[in-house]
């Protein structure tokens, strides 16, 4: 409904202070628009806060300044309308996003969460029952895409533009490192790969050679995807799960999706992918989590606050 990418693009990434201010400016209009669209879809003239059963909001994890805006607004709306207040873990929302494209999906499953802020493998034993198997020890995948795109002068956000150039390049052209591919665990590291790509770019420029941007993008993508797929396969073998899910903004990457499809087909494992519209952060996935919590009567009190960091494995 509203995007603030243009405001962050000039800085090559999200600026927390700008994000918070833009949230404040947009939140009333965004909610009004959602009510109008929902009323039209339901075939009714008008929808108000009092027509809802409950009001839910993302409370963690993320940029706390932006989260605070949403939490304060939702609290105010819930209090004024006399409705229960539900807090939702943003990461759990990405797990539930898989229900949007596959309503029959049920755990157990291994979930690959890949976004601008998170890169992790989760064993989803049941709804609300999660075990984090491994996370990145430094950069997230989306963050690495943004930094490589910035080094190439391709703009922000990096994921879509690198995919676009990478589709025209040779993924075997440059041998970038596959960090922690054979570490024996399910942790990730993107910092070394990002540095290797930036070093290569600077070296080519210093040598006076013209950059082959498609080859750089394709080779970088291949290095990221190879590790993601290898670790996901290891997680499936370790847990015995017969379903792999993907969530987060990077789940929209066509090379990653195709590589997961090949791996799962070969392994005889079901692959569940959110539709492209549900890969990035969206309200639908948060509402799906909230619906379950509403049915379980798991409500938050009004003294609850936003949190920058939470452990997905701990029930809330």
Overall, the morphology is globular
Q: How would a crystallographer describe the biggest sheet?
A: 5 strands, mixed
Secondary-structure-derived class? alpha/beta
The Rg value, from CA coordinates, equals 21 Å
Termini Cα gap:
29 Å
Per CATH, the superfamily of the largest domain is ATPase, nucleotide binding domain
Q: What's the CATH topology name of the largest domain?
A: Nucleotidyltransferase, domain 5
Percent of residues in beta strands = 5-15%
Strand element count: 7
Number of helices: 11
Percent of residues in helical segments?
Answer: 40-55%
Identify the CATH architecture of the largest domain. 2-Layer Sandwich
Order of SSEs: HHEHEHHEEEHHHHEHEH
Mean pLDDT: 95
State the domain count.
2
CATH C-level class of the largest domain: Alpha Beta
Strands in their spatial order, largest beta sheet: 5-4-3-6-7
Unreliable segments of 5+ consecutive residues: none
Output the keywords.
alpha/beta, 11 helices, Nucleotidyltransferase, domain 5, 48% helix, five-stranded mixed β-sheet, globular, 2 domains, two-stranded parallel sheet, 316 residues, 13% strand
């Amino acid at each position: 409904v509203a995007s603030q990418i243009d405001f962050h693009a000039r800085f090559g990434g999200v600026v927390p202070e700008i994000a918070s201010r833009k949230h404040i400016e947009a939140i009333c209009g965004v909610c009004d628009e959602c009510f109008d669209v929902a009323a039209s879809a339901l075939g009714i003239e008008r929808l108000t806060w009092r027509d809802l059963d409950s009001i839910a909001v993302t409370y963690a994890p993320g940029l706390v300044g932006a989260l605070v805006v949403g939490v304060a607004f939702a609290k105010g709306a819930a209090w004024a309308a006399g409705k229960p207040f539900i807090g939702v873990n943003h990461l759990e929302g990405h797990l539930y996003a898989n229900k949007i494209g596959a309503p029959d999906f049920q755990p157990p499953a291994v979930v690959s969460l890949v976004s601008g802020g998170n890169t992790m493998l989760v064993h989803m034993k049941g709804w609300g029952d999660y075990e984090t198997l491994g996370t990145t020890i430094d950069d997230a995948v989306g963050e690495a895409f943004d930094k490589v795109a910035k080094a190439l002068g391709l703009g922000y956000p990096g994921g879509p533009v690198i995919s676009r150039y990478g589709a025209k390049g040779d993924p075997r052209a440059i041998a970038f490192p596959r960090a922690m591919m054979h570490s024996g665990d399910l942790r990730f590291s993107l910092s070394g790969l990002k540095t290797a790509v930036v070093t290569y770019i600077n070296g080519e420029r210093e040598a006076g050679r013209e950059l082959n941007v498609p080859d750089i993008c394709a080779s970088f993508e291949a290095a990221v995807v190879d590790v993601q797929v290898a670790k996901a396969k290891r997680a499936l073998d370790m847990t015995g799960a017969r379903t792999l899910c993907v969530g987060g903004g990077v789940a929209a990457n066509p090379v990653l999706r195709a590589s997961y499809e090949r791996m799962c087909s070969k392994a005889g494992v079901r692959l569940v992918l959110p539709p492209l519209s549900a890969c990035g952060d969206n309200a639908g996935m948060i509402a799906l989590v909230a619906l379950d919590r509403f049915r379980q009567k798991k409500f938050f009190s009004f003294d609850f606050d936003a949190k920058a960091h939470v452990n997905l494995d701990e029930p809330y």
